[in-house]
Amino acid sequence: MGNATSKAARKFPKRAEPPTWTSTASSSPQAFPKRPDQSIEQDAQDSNYMSNLARLGVAKVDHHMQAVRPHQKSREMIESRVQSEEEAASMHPSRNHIQASTLSYLLDKSKSHASRQEIRELADKYNVDIEKIEGLSRYFTTPSINPNSVVRKVRNEDGEEELSVLAIWVEYRGLKA
């Protein structure tokens, strides 16, 4: 912003100032100068500086702003984790809270031409609303295994088997009535 001449020149002390604990006469704080000094007047004459200030415009102050309390969000996050851990450790898990592997299983069943009654029974078994499963199935999916791509290889004499499959994506088409 502005020319180099419009910036105040840096001045470094020629010698180190004595520590404050030494017995020197305390100086009174300098009062704000009543007249603008040379650098302020040069800034006022700088056209680039003035055009940039004009482009910024008047400061807008939001009087309805609330104080920022970063510790509040941290506390809420910790409380949420504690509540989640308590629900996970509980003998009676809350409704519609399941593990990711269970959710994957339910999503697979919902797209594998299972009837609505079968999905309802599974949803009741895992304590999940069927509407939640249907809603998730519309927007999320899991990889499915192409049944024609299963390849089994025996690796050694002990009977260790290697299984390779091809994953495919199957679109959700809604549950059958």
TrEMBL record:
Ranges annotated as biased composition (Polar residues): 39-51
- State the protein's name: Uncharacterized protein
Q: What is the lineage of its organism?
A: Eukaryota, Fungi, Dikarya, Basidiomycota, Agaricomycotina
Chain positions covered by the region annotation Disordered: 1-51, 65-97
Compositionally biased intervals (Low complexity)? 18-29
Which residues lie in Basic and acidic residues bias regions? 73-84
